[in-house]
Amino acid sequence: MYCIIGGPQSSGTSLLRQIVNRHEAIHCFNESHLFNKVELYENWQKNKNKLFSTGLLGLKSSGWRIFTGLNYEQNPFKKEDLKKFAKDSENYLSFLDQTFESVTASECKMDKTPSNLFCAKAFLENFEGSKFIACIRDPYDTISSLLARGVQLLDAVSIVKSSFLELSKLTSNLNVISLRYEDLVTKPKQEIQRLMDFLQLSFSDKLLQAKPVSEITKIEGWNYSEDAEVGTESIARFKKESIEVQNEIKQAFNAVVWENGEEEIRTAMTFFEYQIADDKPEPEVLKKLSEQKRKGIWERTRKMHTYTMFNDPINWAK
Q: 2-316: what fold?
């Protein structure tokens, strides 16, 4: 069985990966970017060789984050092997089978890449019996965490808004399970048991026991390592910010209006029980966001990435 994890960055995907990888029947790759290239679902034979290029013609990961190609640094596969698998594979599924079989015999084959969310619908439609896990977190807390990681304000807001727009398309799909970060860290046993039932796998208390690993599980801006005991330190992270930062986040969130999707974004946030303030953006916040937008559009267009100057989704609140 194939299952992918996705959601906004800083929404608990790394924590969840550490937990599920403690299960004897699961092997979960770490942000491989194997599943988030829309062109591979549309035409495998035509686009498979582009998967190995990091240049302008390489396949870009879907979503707001700028990333081209695959992540070899954090995963146990090699570029040379994957090139051979692609050459020998008549379809996308065969390629994935060979890739996973080269490193694991686990029954449940997983990947954790936040932007998997943007290809979740295509993934479920193309791979029979597959499942998708959506990780969700309070929008303000997510933005606060992203800012601590060095992400610019406009990018942080855009990551959240674009993700919730995709989530709005998946809420009624029976092959999708949604895990709220707040529930995962406050009642981990209940949530992981619910997840195992969804995956039709056995639950064990061992899944919740911290198990040190060799890889780096804490990056700058995180409150704790993801291979430690499940903790609640990051709940209501936004409220721990200064009043100035809180106001800027609230204003920026309302300043950015997603073309052809703002209503769906707000509805999805309400569906998952998140509340958004109605703070109106002040001129200095709009000026800051506008400067970041100009630089961001140029960078995305230069790299031929998603959301270029030809299809920029952002408008400003009137």
A: Rossmann fold (3.40.50)
